[in-house]
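Lecture notes, unit on protein representations.

Consider one protein chain, 337 amino acids long.
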Amino acid sequence: MTENRFNSFTFQPFINEAIKGYGFKAPTEIQERMIPVVLKGESAIGQSQTGTGKTLAYVLPILDKIDPKRQEVQVVITAPTRELASQIYHEILKVTEHCSPEQAIMSRCYVGGTDKKRAIEKLKVQPHIVVGTPGRINDLMSEKALFIHTAGILVVDEADMMLDMGFIEDLDRVAAKLPENLQMLVFSATIAEKLKPFLKKYMENPKTIHIESKRKAAENLEHYLLPSKHRSKKQLVHDALLAYNPFLAIVFTNTKKMAEEVAYFLNSKGLRVGRVHGDLSPRERKQMMKQIQDLEYQYIVATDLASRGIDIEGVSHIINYELPTDLDFYHLSFPLL
């Protein structure tokens, strides 16, 4: 029998049970290098692309460090979008469901578009782990309902996207409430110059773990360049979708306006198309993601920014309607946790 290489981390039994449930036998490179750093209590910057397994690289060791007997916030995990925060939260639940009643770990997810009054009522008991968007976490802090000053760990997931979406000020207000001896874990595909002042403010000599992409695309992924000269691009996309007859296809655009235009055109041609972009209301976004997960759509049109970090299962085909201005957004592979 092949030895499970996760055993070398000497995690608590409930975490080992969760890993067994996942069916994992060996950590990914980011997990192998990041987990020991987190367990030691060191701050770190993990630079890796989507699909490297970074979520569990911090979730597993963080859960190992939680003291269930301390009924106070011990960890704050921030994400730039509601969908990504929700995904992280549900991965935590998958692991903590293996806890015994005596070692139960309470986590809560706080994002915009949800019932704030109800969240405040539930905060009469503070959770061990807070996952959420910086704006909603700040809201609950200003209402004097959420107390994060007791947290020793702050995770910033998709930091470059936080910057792109203008959330650094909200994030700064969250970080300012935390202790000086903070363990801070930052994950980002790229480290932009504008992000460095924030990192320098809160991180002193962090470990930097840079995972080079070993391949430009997922294995067994075929690429096709479709010439569009003298042809309508929207019609070309429509014809390609019909020709390939995908199980589930995503068409990526650069802007919300273009996403709407492409979705409208495809709908006008009789295709039932889902949409994922920043102009959807919180309720619409939540409903759309549920419909996508329930396989109610064969085709989805999405903007690069709004879709980043979202794990949509079953995608068989991707069409990049436009080449993104930032090639890190070029969609080549399918995400892992």
